[in-house]
Amino acid sequence: MSNTTTIGKDFSLLELLKFVSLPVFTRLVVSFLSTLDDGLFISRYLGQYALAALSICLPLFMMVDALNMLMGSISTVCSIKMGEGKNDEANSDFSTMIIFVFSIGILLSIIFSVVLRPLLSFLGATELLFPYAVEFFHIYVIYLPIVLVNFIFNSFYIIAGKPKFAMFSQVINICFQIFFDWLFIVRLNIGMKGAAYSNLLGNIAVFIFALFFYLNKNNEIHLVKPKSNITDLLKSVLKYGRVQFFTSIAISISSYITNRVNLVLGQEELVAAYTIVSNVVWMFTSCYFGLLGSVSPIISYSYGEKNNSKFKKICLQSIKLIYSLVIFVILLIISSKKIILFLYLTELSSDNVKNMVSYGLNIYPLSLLFFGFNVLVQEVANIIGEHKNSFILSLFENVIFQNASVIIIPLLFGAKGVWYVFVVCEILTFMLTLYFVYNNQEKLDF
User: Fold this and answer.
1) Are 242 and 325 in contact (CB under 8 A)?
2) What is d(CA 312, CA 307) in angstroms, rounded to the nearest whole number?
3) Does residue 155 sit in the same domain as residue 286?
4) Which residues does 214 contact at the CB level (< 8 Å), separation at least 6?
5) Which tens digits make up the pLDDT trace of 232-263?
6) pLDDT tens digits, 341-375
7) Do residues 246 and 262 make contact, with C-beta atoms less than 8 angstroms apart?
8) Which H helix or E strand runs over 57?
9) Which of 180, 141, 157, 153 has the alpha carbon at shortest distance from 41?
10) Which of 271, 132, 152 is nearest to 203 (CA)?
11) Do 295 and 414 sit in the same domain of this protein?
12) CB 46, CB 132: distance < 8 Å
């Protein structure tokens, strides 16, 4: 019976590898193009401080992402209602949330426009970084409502039975941004405003693409005249989205602390170097989420089947694939240092930044030896109903261990200690994760 569906199949390791290879490759390509956009145009043509200015503002981006995570849980609410046969109600909820999110976006745009300069100063924008940050965010706040709505749109393509459209949407956005970054920054030389305008046009293209899709009444999920009670809807959204919301808030706080520590230890140059290294590592980290997104439904299916041997088998296979990917990624990053340095830095970049990036690329990727396993166990914990423990593991990883490491390690070892922060954080999380697995041996004996 289990072989009648794709995710119910009893996979061999080779079959599982083939199954996950396309999602992993897709996530890597999309992430690479996004990173290429930053590296080739912002860092290379506008300078290391322009990229550092965006990094200083990462907490602000993460706050927007937290709102996305919260409001994006409307997809879970609508999926449940569609499973109950309440398609009309799901369409109404979807449409109501689109209008509500767009309205919230307008309100935030007004607020951010008023407090932008003091907010950037609070985030740590120095005299060197402030002009770049102001140029970009004066434009960013204008199209913030579209950014928020696009996130909701993108999360509903799978519900509509068109998962490839989510990928098409990302590709459209990235292609627009790369082309217009080249036009505005390289050809027209209008600086950070060019980066913001290209981002604006990419988001507008995605917004138009989504409108054509969701105005089509033949799609299972589409825009209708909203009739939902917004208060009841927000209660449901809060129920399903609060964990992701607080996780994003925690990452925002961690980003703020990290930036402040980097400014104290190495000023803008260390911020620039750290931005480059973290961008590169997180580009490859997207592979793990592509893999995790592929194996998670299979693990869920086997757990729902109550097939214990199959559940443990797929978990063990997932661990093997993760560590095969880990070794490949670490070797690739270390062996590609010259290419990375060429991509992000020019002859005008300081030798100090180049040396810091080179050193960081040798150390930071080692955290991946533990990161993949930590994320997998958190996902499996959610699947088996250990939601509280999954949240605790994430809380320790993203708040307690991360912030403690970023304060204590550089204090003891100076600027070079910054590169060991994420490694130490993931090792501590790994130890806690192993303790969790040990205490749940009956469920997680893999």
Assistant:
1) no
2) 9
3) no
4) 153, 156, 160, 221, 222, 223
5) 888 888 877 776 787 778 778 888 888 888 88
6) 887 777 767 788 888 888 998 898 898 889 888 98
7) no
8) none
9) 180
10) 152
11) yes
12) yes
Residue among 286, 293, 373 at smallest CA distance from 7: 293
* Crossing angle for the helix pair 58-72 and 87-123, to the nearest 10 degrees: 170
Q: How far is CA 225 from the centre of its chain?
A: 32
CB atoms within 10 A of CB 320: 12
DSSP reduced 3-state for 357: helix
274 and 174 share one domain: no
- Give the N- to C-terminal CA distance of the chain in Å, as an integer: 24
Please give the C-alpha separations between residue 252 and each of 109, 146, 395, 420, in angstroms, as whole numbers: 19, 21, 13, 20
Alpha-carbon 166 to chain mean position: 15
Same domain, 1 and 75: no
> Considering the domain boundaries, does residue 243 fall inside one?
no
Q: Which residue has the tokens 């745009």?
A: 109
Domain count, the chain: 2
Enumerate residues 6+ apart whose C-beta is below 8 A from 282. 31
- 327: which residues sit within 8 A by CB, 6+ positions away? none
Q: Are 17 and 319 a contacting pair, CB within 8 Å?
A: no
Which residue is it, tokens 């501590």? 428
Same domain for 122 and 221, yes or no, is yes
The residues of the chain scoring below 70 in pLDDT are 1-8, 22-23, 26-27, 33-39, 83, 158-159, 161, 163, 243, 266, 293, 297, 300-301, 304, 348, 443-446
Token duo for residue 164: 């490839």
For the chain, counts of helices (H) and of strands (E): 17, 0
DSSP code string of 197-226: HHHHHHHHHHHHHHHHHHT-TTSSS-----
Burial class (CB in 10 A: 0-12, 13-18, 19+), 245: buried
User: Which residue, among 314, 295, 292, 291, has the nearest Cα to 13 in the 3D structure?
Assistant: 314
Q: What single-letter DSSP state applies at residue 39?
A: I
